[in-house]
Fold this protein.
Amino acid sequence: MLVKGYNHYEIANTLQIPRPTITKDIQHLRQQNRGNLQTHIQERLPQEYENCMAGINRVLQLTWEIAEKPTDDKTRLQAFAQLNEGYKFKMDLTTNGIVITDAIKYVTQKQEQIDTLQKLDERLQASEEEKTIEGVY
């Protein structure tokens, strides 16, 4: 329901569960998601990046060997064209790594801001509930 855009109140009303339970469940899911993303970023992504760079470097090395062999001009031109593509791909991968890092920092900062705003909203709602209870008594 959260994925479909329902807010905490709508989920609680639909499932007939107290809103604080929904809030705690959602916080738990968010924490799990952060952990999964952190694991992916810190453990899997660097290894995949290194594997890709090693593969590109090996392909470039073999292509240089072909380009430098005394073969016909057509083969050499094709090898140089492949080298050109390989270096472009390597440059893209290198610069996009920076973009990914910046994006991760941006998302982390925004998530922290959202978490802060949600905590503030929860405090305000709790305060309003206390005022309502005080008004009844």
